[in-house]
């Protein structure tokens, strides 16, 4: 007989009613005969109230309204959790576990989970979190995340830019399923090329991160896991529309092809074909665009032999038009009739992942990832032309094993990258090929108690960056219960794609100025930085509810950097760093489960980002020194039938941000030294009618906060003071949207 | 004839004394929570020759991979019971049981309320 694990509290203090749930737990069998299971545990999730079934499998357990999840478990059987909202009789069959170790985790999943265990400072954003905001694509999926700042790159392309630790996205390694994907040519718009519905979860690592995915990450790593044919819905349809005339359609179709093959087809289309000019500067506040994005995934799973692999095919076509309201591309392109811009991107991608886990020895596995992409952008901005084509090949092989026992894990492998760039900038052509071969080794020690550390090193030989070593170290120490003290140190190196990463410079009348230092990329030397960080997480109970507080401090020190200098309003200069450049960031975050289904997250961030420019050592423009963030989410569960309401509110406050100097401009084109402060509010309501159907309604920037004159020199776009880069806040003001999701499991 | 006999004896010998450096076994171990999980697994892994030990909170199943040239099931069971956890065949002494954290008293106390899902360190990588 099994031990009784759950004692019946004789006098449940908070249960006033004497209501009971009775029933019988049976062993699943083909004929559905009632074979009672003796000794199965039946308990209310998250409480200490539980009983054990008697010799015939019968049980009786007290019921009160605050219990909704009844857990039934028995050794050798799958654990089931039933949602119970009223006293009733429960007849439940338990399924025996097969050898696949399927365990359902039965507590309410936190939408963003911080790890108390891992060595690196990682948090996982689940799909639930991603549904808290409009989240039409990856660039919008960080709205409810305090660690990542989202702002507009310029006043006209509507492109959102993300920052981490005070550094822009080129310093973050952004990968999809661990294959670096948003880099090079796709740096500026790539985040908007990954539809939100394709993303199943996001892992965000602060600090240098693992060496397994390459040497380029400096501030952090973001990895988006995509939906998989075997686990995604058979059919999923999402429709989205907003009052500004943006429409989106997402469809997923997944099907099993054979025992081992499954396939999924994911289609995304979005369109916005209205012209808006709420600030009357004759410039569209957001571009008109059309995007078609397709992905076809094939998944092969053979659990007996331990094989799993994916083949992905992607195609994207994205067209944008922006500029003055009366601009007609057919007659005005590259003329001074009117200022306008078109950006057309086509991207093809094929990638494959192959994984083998030794079924006999689960800690031995081998993974091979390969990806090939062709990215072509053809564009003009007023009189500036910019075209870029990138062909990229990536391959990575990773072997996982242990040394002596599973407290000592190792990952080792080899990588190969190849990138060919063809660029055309006004009258100049730039062409270059980069390739590298590297090997990495990462050792993880987990003493299963207070200490967990990961030490990694990689050695790469790159045709333009030379041969170099990338060391990285992450450690986690638990001084006492529910705490985690982390420290990390790491180095990153990358070649700056000065045009692709800074496309906003083309929507200005600035002269582009590269100060050649005979380096290997555009005459510039690669960027090298060290990142150091400490973080402390403490979980505790406040008024008997879960809470946690995190304090992070990260420091990025550039040994070399390609400085982007906007300090002369007539030009933009690129040159290698001569002096100090650093980004220090402090973040204080507080999470609290105020009462059941009501969660609160608050954060304060302090940035000190400074660079030695040719003129002076200055704060980096458009980085707020102080930022506040708050997000509240509340859920209401209705009666059985799984009806549910979800409410979400996100508040952001940004302190003043420095404008790069405009002192030498004529008076009417001069700006203040600093921007005003800014507070925005987003909210969303979701009504879940059933597991199949839900609708959502939301507002972005509800308080209708706007930056008044986002385009400098809008009155004379071909004059010498035209500039669209002085953007610190929303251009359009408030926007309301609605959408629906329909899914068949 | 003699040769065949010798060969046969040798073969029998090699089959009976075959050593497996990746032997696998499972056993049932009593416990209630993730703290128990780490206590049980740690006790196993600190036993010389154990390569992998995974204890499942829900099913109480302990899956082991060990080098049977260096250790045996009995030795591992001893490690587990010394850490204060009962196995099916072998029960922990009162002394050892008394050493487990008060909230892990699987023999007589209710489950902890505050089990954190995100503490489950089943690394996905």
From TrEMBL, chain A:
Residues 119-220 form the TonB-dependent receptor plug domain. It is a multi-pass membrane protein. It is found in: Cell outer membrane. Signal peptide: none annotated. It comes from the Bacteria. Keywords: Cell outer membrane, Membrane, Receptor, Signal, TonB box, Transmembrane, Transmembrane beta strand, Transport. Pfam families: CarbopepD_reg_2, Plug, TonB_dep_Rec_b-barrel. Residues 296-702 form the TonB-dependent receptor-like beta-barrel domain. SUPFAM superfamilies: Carboxypeptidase regulatory domain-like, Porins. Belongs to the TonB-dependent receptor family. PANTHER family: HEMOGLOBIN AND HEMOGLOBIN-HAPTOGLOBIN-BINDING PROTEIN 1-RELATED, TONB-DEPENDENT OUTER MEMBRANE RECEPTOR. This is TonB-dependent receptor. It comes from Thalassobellus suaedae.
Automatic annotation (TrEMBL), chain B:
Residues 18-88 form the HMA domain. InterPro entries: HMA_dom, HMA_dom_sf. Pfam families: HMA. Gene3D superfamilies: 3.30.70.100. SUPFAM superfamilies: HMA, heavy metal-associated domain. Keywords: Signal. PROSITE patterns: HMA_2 (PS50846). Residues 1-18 form the signal peptide. This is Heavy-metal-associated domain-containing protein. It comes from Thalassobellus suaedae.
């Amino acid at each position: 007989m099994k031990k009784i694990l759950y004692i019946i509290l004789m006098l449940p203090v908070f249960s006033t009613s004497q209501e009971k749930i009775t029933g019988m737990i049976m062993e699943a069998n083909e004929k559905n005969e009632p074979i009672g299971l003796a000794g199965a545990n039946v308990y209310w999730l998250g409480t200490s109230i539980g009983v054990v079934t008697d010799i015939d499998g019968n049980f009786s357990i007290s019921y009160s309204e605050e219990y909704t999840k009844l857990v039934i478990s028995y050794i050798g059987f799958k654990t089931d959790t039933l949602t119970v909202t009223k006293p009733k009789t429960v007849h439940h069959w338990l399924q025996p576990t097969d050898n696949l170790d399927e365990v359902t985790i039965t507590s309410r999943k936190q939408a963003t989970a911080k790890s108390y265990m891992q060595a690196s400072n990682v948090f996982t954003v689940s799909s639930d979190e991603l549904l808290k905001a409009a989240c039409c694509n990856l660039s919008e999926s960080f709205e409810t995340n305090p660690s990542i700042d989202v702002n507009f790159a310029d006043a006209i392309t509507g492109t959102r830019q993300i920052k981490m630790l005070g550094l822009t996205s080129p310093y973050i390694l952004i990968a999809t399923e661990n294959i670096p994907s948003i880099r090079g040519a796709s740096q500026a718009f790539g985040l908007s090329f990954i539809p939100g519905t394709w993303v199943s979860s996001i892992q965000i690592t602060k600090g240098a991160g693992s060496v397994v995915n390459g040497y380029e990450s400096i501030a952090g790593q973001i990895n988006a896991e995509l939906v998989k044919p075997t686990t995604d819905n058979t059919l999923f349809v999402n429709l989205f529309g907003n009052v500004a005339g943006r429409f989106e359609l997402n469809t997923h179709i997944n099907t099993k092809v054979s025992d081992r093959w499954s396939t999924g087809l994911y289609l995304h289309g979005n369109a916005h074909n209205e012209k808006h000019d709420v600030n009357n500067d004759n410039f569209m506040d957001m571009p008109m665009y059309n995007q078609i994005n397709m992905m076809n995934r094939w998944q092969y799973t053979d659990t007996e032999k331990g094989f799993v692999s994916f083949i992905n095919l992607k195609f994207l076509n994205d067209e944008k038009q922006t500029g003055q309201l009366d601009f007609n591309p057919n007659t005005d392109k590259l003329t001074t009739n009117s200022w306008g811009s078109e950006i057309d991107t086509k991207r093809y991608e094929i990638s494959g992942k192959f994984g083998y886990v030794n079924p006999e020895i689960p800690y031995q596995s081998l993974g091979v990832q390969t990806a090939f992409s062709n990215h072509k952008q053809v564009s003009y901005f007023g009189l500036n032309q910019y075209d870029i084509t990138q062909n990229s090949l990536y391959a990575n092989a990773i072997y996982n094993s242990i040394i002596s026992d599973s407290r000592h894990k190792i990952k080792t492998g080899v990588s190969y990258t190849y990138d060919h760039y063809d660029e055309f900038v006004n009258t100049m052509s730039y062409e270059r090929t980069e390739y590298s071969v590297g090997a990495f080794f990462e050792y993880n020690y987990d003493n299963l108690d207070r200490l967990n550390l990961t030490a990694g090193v990689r050695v790469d030989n790159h045709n333009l960056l030379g041969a170099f070593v990338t060391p990285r170290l992450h450690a986690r120490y638990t001084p006492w219960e529910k705490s985690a003290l982390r420290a990390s140190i790491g180095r990153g190196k990358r070649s700056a794609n000065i045009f692709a990463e800074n496309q906003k410079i083309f929507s200005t009348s600035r002269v582009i100025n590269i100060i050649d230092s005979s380096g290997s990329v555009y005459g510039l030397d690669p960027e090298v930085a060290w990142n150091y960080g400490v973080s402390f997480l403490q979980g505790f109970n406040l008024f008997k509810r879960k809470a946690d507080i995190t304090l992070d401090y990260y420091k990025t020190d550039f040994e070399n950097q390609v400085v982007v200098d906007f300090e002369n309003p007539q030009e933009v200069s690129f040159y290698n760093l001569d002096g100090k450049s650093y980004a220090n960031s402090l973040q204080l975050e507080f999470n609290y489960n105020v009462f059941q289904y009501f969660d609160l997250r608050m954060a304060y961030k302090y940035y000190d980002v400074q660079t030695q420019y040719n003129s002076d050592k200055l704060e980096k423009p458009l980085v707020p020194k102080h930022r506040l963030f708050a997000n509240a989410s509340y859920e209401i569960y209705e009666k059985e039938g799984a009806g549910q309401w979800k409410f979400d509110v996100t508040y952001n406050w940004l302190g003043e941000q420095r404008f790069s100097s405009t002192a030498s401009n004529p008076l009417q084109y001069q700006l203040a030294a600093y921007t005003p402060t800014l507070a925005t509010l987003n909210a969303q309501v979701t009504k879940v009618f059933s597991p199949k159907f839900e609708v959502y309604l939301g507002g972005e920037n509800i308080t209708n906060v706007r930056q008044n004159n986002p385009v400098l020199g809008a009155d004379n776009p071909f004059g010498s003071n035209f500039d669209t880069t002085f953007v610190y806040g929303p251009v359009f003001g408030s926007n309301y949207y609605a959408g629906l999701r329909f899914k068949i499991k | 004839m003699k040769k065949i006999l010798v060969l046969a004896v040798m073969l029998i010998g090699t089959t009976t004394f075959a050593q497996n450096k990746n032997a696998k076994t499972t056993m049932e171990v009593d416990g209630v929570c993730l703290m128990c999980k780490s206590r049980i697994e740690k006790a196993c892994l600190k036993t010389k020759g154990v390569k992998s030990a995974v204890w499942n909170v829900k099913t109480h199943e302990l899956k082991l991979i060990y080098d049977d040239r260096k250790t045996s099931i009995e030795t591992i069971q001893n490690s587990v019971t010394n850490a204060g956890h009962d196995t099916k065949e072998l029960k922990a002494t009162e002394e050892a049981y008394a050493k487990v954290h008060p909230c892990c008293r699987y023999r007589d106390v209710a489950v902890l309320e505050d089990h954190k899902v995100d503490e489950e360190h089943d690394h996905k990588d």
